[in-house]
């Protein structure tokens, strides 16, 4: 730590210029979402350490423009062609470059930022995240769906292009911090902790009649709607199992899930000698985001500090496969490989969106995913085009099934 360079600012943060006083340039893909806003919050607290290249969003144009102004971004990009004019008008009195459309998103990821936060939700983030990986950037990966549907391709490109992939998902960030990558044979298993979501203790009738409002009311984490529903069905933990399989050198059998309602132990690695290493903290995504932003340094966050004496009790239980069939579906998809995880993810995205629009019931989500997994044929998956084709086919079958109910 370079003490002379320490800056105690009026926002309560302790800023450190990263690596020898050069500023780290950052692009955020999905800056208006929950992860995106938390990233902006940290960048504001550490202005002396970062510059901002590009911010991207889907259709929250007002917030995107406000963020770009506030943080001094060079470019602001919306994924939606039809919103170009609106964004251009919002930023008319600035020098900020404005562009729109899915290709503009890929171009934003291609801009020369040293660090890219991949925080788009769903498979929509795949192409831009891959573009950042292909130019060898440091990528903070929140967008787990990328790895679920194109894990082998993505990791192959990380290796080929010497990119750095830093997990932002709290469980994977925890494992990353305690995994001995130099002695991977000494790892007995990794243990992903799960809060259990809002329906941890609910009976099946309550779950069947659950409303979107109940499903998104997560007990510990404040997150976007899609991942909140995924936490309620526990598909989130299923997706995270697949994510972990791609991020860490372990076989599927060595990935376990443990329900831990307090979300204080973010995950653990068990070694062959019986040692278990864990990373702990209060449930605030700014901790893993800060870890990735500053890596390999550390920067201060305003996250509440852990007070174990006050907490007093940490509890654990096994997940219930009956009420949470998404866990089994994700396990099956991981074991089958190939097209199966792509279908699982695409069908789940469509099912969650339909549930949020009250078109289907909560327990229809796993039913629809299973239906699609049985219906969509397996195919070769050796290119992004193949991934997108299977993804499209699964979305079509899921949507048709939902429409046939109306
Ligand atoms: P969110 O819904 O709050 O935000 C998503 C962002 O992606 C927004 O900026 C939105 O404009 C953008 N976006 C949405 N659809 C898009 C599209 N089609 N094209 C381009 N951009 C699009 O989501 P979130 O909760 O911030 O989650 C983002 C990712 O991080 C997800 O993959 C989620 O699983 C993962 N994650 C989130 C949390 C969390 O605490 N929120 C924790 C762990 C992992
Ligand atoms: Mg997580």
Account of the 3D structure:
Helix 1 crosses helix 12, helix 4 packs parallel to helix 5 and helix 15 crosses helix 17. The protein has a seven-stranded parallel sheet with strand order 6-5-4-3-7-8-9, sandwiched between helices. Strands 11-10-12-13 form a four-stranded mixed sheet, covered by helices on one side. The N terminus is likely disordered. The protein is 44% helix and 16% strand. Strand 12 and strand 13 form a beta hairpin. It has 406 residues and is an alpha/beta fold. It has three domains: 161 residues, Rossmann fold (3-Layer(aba) Sandwich); 120 residues, no CATH class; 70 residues, Rna Polymerase Sigma Factor, Chain: A, CATH 1.10.1740.10. The site of magnesium ion has 4 residues, from helix 7.
């Amino acid at each position: 730590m370079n003490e002379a360079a320490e800056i105690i600012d009026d926002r309560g943060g302790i800023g450190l210029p990263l690596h020898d006083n050069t500023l780290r340039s950052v692009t955020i893909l999905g800056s208006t979402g929950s992860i995106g806003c938390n990233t902006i919050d940290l960048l504001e607290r550490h202005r002396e350490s970062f510059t901002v290249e590009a911010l991207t969003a889907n259709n929250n144009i007002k917030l995107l423009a406000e963020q770009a102004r506030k943080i001094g971004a060079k470019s602001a990009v919306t994924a939606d062609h039809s919103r170009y004019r609106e964004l251009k008008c919002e930023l008319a009195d600035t020098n900020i470059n404005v562009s729109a459309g899915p290709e503009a998103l890929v171009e934003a990821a291609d801009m020369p930022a040293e660090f890219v936060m991949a925080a788009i939700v769903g498979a929509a983030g795949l192409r831009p995240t891959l573009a950042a990986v292909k130019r060898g950037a440091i990528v903070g990966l929140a967008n787990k769906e990328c790895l679920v549907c194109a894990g082998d391709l993505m990791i192959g490109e990380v290796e080929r292009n010497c990119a750095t992939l830093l997990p932002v998902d709290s469980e994977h960030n925890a494992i990353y911090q305690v995994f001995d990558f130099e002695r991977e044979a000494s790892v007995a298993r990794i243990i992903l902790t799960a809060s259990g979501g809002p329906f941890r203790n609910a009976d099946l009738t309550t779950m069947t009649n659950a409303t979107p409002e109940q499903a998104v009311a997560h007990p510990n984490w404040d997150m976007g709607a899609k991942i909140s529903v995924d936490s309620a069905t526990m598909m989130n933990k299923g997706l995270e199992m697949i994510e972990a399989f791609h991020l860490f050198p372990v076989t599927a059998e060595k990935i376990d899930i443990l329900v831990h309602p307090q979300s204080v132990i973010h995950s653990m690695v068990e070694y062959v000698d019986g040692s278990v290493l864990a990373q702990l903290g209060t449930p605030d995504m700014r901790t893993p985001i800060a870890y990735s932003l500053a890596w390999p340094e550390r920067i201060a966050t305003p996250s509440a500090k852990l007070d174990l004496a006050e907490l007093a009790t940490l509890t654990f239980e096994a997940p219930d496969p009956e009420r949470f069939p998404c866990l089994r579906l994700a396990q099956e998809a991981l074991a089958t490989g190939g097209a199966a995880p792509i279908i699982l993810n695409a069908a789940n995205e469509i099912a969650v969106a339909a549930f949020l629009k009250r078109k289907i019931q909560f327990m229809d989500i796993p039913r629809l995913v299973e239906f699609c997994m049985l219906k969509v044929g397996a195919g070769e998956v050796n290119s992004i085009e193949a991934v997108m084709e299977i993804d499209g086919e699964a979305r079509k079958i899921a949507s048709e099934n939902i429409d046939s109910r109306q």
